Amino acid sequence: MIVSLLVPSKLYGIHFYTTRLLIYGVADGSFRPLPRYGGGLDGDNVIHIDADGKFFLITSQRYLDSTPAVWRVELDTLEMTEIVEAQRNVWSWYADPEGVVRAGVGIRGKRWWLLYRSSAADKFERVVKGRLQDRCREGDRD
């Protein structure tokens, strides 16, 4: 079982929360942290679980000031492999039903963009971009 923890932290007098994942062994009641784990704020975003139960994908920051990369975690060994490098200003990653990371959403200031690729062998390309609105207009809520 994958368990998400919200951990209160403090750095330079500033209180904040970080998230982490632990693996709970249902059979033996053990908790194990993921071995090579980042040090950023966001570390528990599971974006895909393999239908056969062999692996899952998470996004995790390496450092407080970095954006998240995508990691493949083997469930039998907990071995972690970085499969998509962190990209500047890209905070959200999305995988298809087969576990191929296909898209990422970047944001900087009031600008956003969507990165996309057709397959795991392709490079990400910016396919859509836009500006964030200061506030929702009436009728824009759905």
Which geometry do the CA atoms define?
flat
Question: Roughly what fraction of the amino acids lie in strands?
Answer: over 45%
Helix content: under 10%
Compute the number of strand runs: 11
Rg of Cα set: 17 Å
| Order of strands in the sheet with most strands | 4-5-6-7
SSE string, helices as H and strands as E: EEEEEEEEEEE
SSE blueprint and pairings:
Layout: E1 2-11, E2 14-25, E3 30-33, E4 45-49, E5 55-60, E6 69-74, E7 80-84, E8 90-95, E9 101-108, E10 111-116, E11 125-131
Report on this model:
With 142 residues, the chain is mainly β. 0% of the residues lie in helices and 53% in strands. A hairpin with a 5-residue loop joins strand 8 (90-95) and strand 9. The relative contact order is 0.12.
What's a quick, concise take on this entry?
The protein is mostly beta strands. 0% of the residues lie in helices and 53% in strands.
Name the features.
0% helix; mainly beta; four-stranded antiparallel sheet; disordered C terminus; 53% strand; 142 residues
